[in-house]
Amino acid sequence: MTDTHEVTVRSVHQMTPSVKQFVLESDGYQFDFEPGQHTHVHFDRAESPAVDDAEPDDEEVVRPYTSTAMPGTERITLAIKRYPDGTASTWMHERDPGDRIEIEELDGNLFLRDLDADAAFVATGTGVTPMIAMAKQYVREATGTAHFFFGETDEEHLFYRETLDQLAADYPSFDVTYVLSQADEEWRGPEGHVQDHLAEHLDDFEERDFYVCGVPEMVVETREYLADRGVDEDRVYVEGWEGDEVSDGEG
Questions:
Q1: Is there a contact between 90 and 13 (Cβ–Cβ < 8 Å)?
Q2: Cα–Cα distance between 131 and 68 in angstroms, integer?
Q3: Which of 124, 145, 186, 206 gives 214 a disulfide partner, CB atoms 3.0 to 4.6 angstroms apart?
Q4: pTM for the complete prediction?
Q5: Rounded to an integer, what distance in angstroms lies between the CA atom of residue 213 and that of residue 130?
Q6: How many whole angstroms separate alpha carbon 247 and alpha carbon 4?
Q7: What span, in angstroms and rounded, lies between the C-alpha atoms of 238 and 123?
Q8: Which pLDDT score, from 0 to 100, does residue 231 have?
Q9: pLDDT in tens, 53-87
Q10: What is the 8-class DSSP label of residue 43?
Q11: Do the beta carbons of residue 200 and residue 190 sit within 8 Å?
């Protein structure tokens, strides 16, 4: 059986129309993990108003969410997008300060591998959450340069923009590019798919580590694109489930 910890919701902040940030605090337990890794939230399916009638009400729901905060304290921070029919995201968005939540230890495949290597972070949507903690670690500890690519639908849905802009302002070795797929006429930045703009800013593909997270199609297409550019697959890091998600969607 998986070990879990009960934590308290200390604060809730509306970041965008669909994303809330939750600060969770333990009772004296210090979280130890690699920036970029995720926890799992546990709750009973019957507690969520977005219940799938085809599944039993007493089934436990377990969903992964990444901490955007750094390790070494009694708190972690989760940024969660609410989906209209999302069992877990709907349940989480109804949590209030003081509520208790059951979570697992943090783990996962996304974390910085080489602090001496140049890096590129490629994210869409809530795939940006593991990258935030990794970017914080990179600028503080790494010796190379990093470029952060974040794709979203429009400016209203860009979250952690202030954090990323501040990192870019404070650290000359860190750059950020935002790409919008449904930009309005006032947007002056790049548009379309984030993976289509990598070559505009990078000229050292084979010498750089790539960390990729977001919608499965973007992750799969980015891996294929990087392979075509000569990037060794051992330098491309993803969670590892994206290919199955794409296959299931097409089947």
A1: no
A2: 8
A3: 124
A4: 0.90
A5: 8
A6: 32
A7: 11
A8: 97
A9: 444 555 889 999 999 999 999 999 999 999 988 99
A10: E
A11: yes
